[in-house]
Amino acid sequence: MKDDVRKIILGTLAGFLVLLTVWVGFLFLVGCGGSLDCSKADPTPVRTSIPTLIPASLPTPDLTGAQAVVLKCRVAAASLLEAWVNAGYSENDPFEFTDAKGTACTATFTADVSVLFKEANLWYSGALACASCHNADLAKASAQMDLSDYQGILAGSRRTSADAKGNDILGGGIWDQSKLYEVLITRKGQPLAMPLGRAVDFDAGTVAVYAGTPKEQP
Asked: What is the DSSP string of 129-147?
């Protein structure tokens, strides 16, 4: 029994020595070309970690017809309304106002002012659009007033029919005498203050919007 174990151990050692000799000989012949100083070995090819790419040539973009970016002016919504009313509240004619940085700007009712009546979440987060409650359905509209379009705004409030003329809400072109000024600014914290549902300490005069464009200087 002892002889068999001894034979197994010696056979394993002999096999290991043979494999080691073969491996070293393989490295000597292949890696060093049979020379002790590896002078006959094949040189290692030089490679880069990133493959060399042919430079790409992109075509020049065609900017024909591209529109320039137009920067809008930042202004208090109430100040924008004030400038429009005091300028005669035209539907299409541009009017001037001064933005928060003191820049002279121009705007129009159609592009800038009408948004104040028709956009939700404008006066505060969660606010309904003014036209949600004040619209063409005068039988259901609050104060029988339509703020959904220019003609409805001019027609005023407390209208008995679509063809009837109501109470002027624009103060005859004087902002601080208008109904809009009263419900937005002077009724702060009072019943029926607009926009509907605002907090008691809400100040409509501080709400800023982006509207109009800087006026071109001569």
From this structure: PHHHHSSS-TTTSGGG---
Contacts of 26 (CB under 8 A, 6+ apart): none
Q: Give the model confidence (pLDDT) of 117-162 as tens digits.
A: 999 998 888 888 999 999 999 999 999 999 999 999 999 999 999 9
Query: What CA dihedral angle connects 73, 195, 202 and 188, to 10 degrees?
Result: 110
Give phi and psi for 114, each to the nearest 5. -60, -25
Following CA atoms 186, 192, 196, 198 in sequence, which dihedral angle do they give, to the nearest 10 degrees? 60
Q: What is the pLDDT of residues 83-100, one digit of tens each?
A: 999 999 999 999 999 999
Domain ranges of the chain: 1-40, 73-214
Q: How far apart are CA 83 and CA 207, in angstroms?
A: 15
SS3 28: helix
Long-range contacts of 36-43 (CB under 8 A, 24+ apart): none
Token pair listed for 194:
């607009």
Tokens of 114: 């009408």
The answer for residues whose C-beta is within 8 angstroms of residue 41's C-beta and 6 or more apart is: 31, 32, 33, 35
Which H/E stretch holds residue 150? helix 150-155
- Lookup: tokens for 80: 């924008």
DSSP label of 145: -
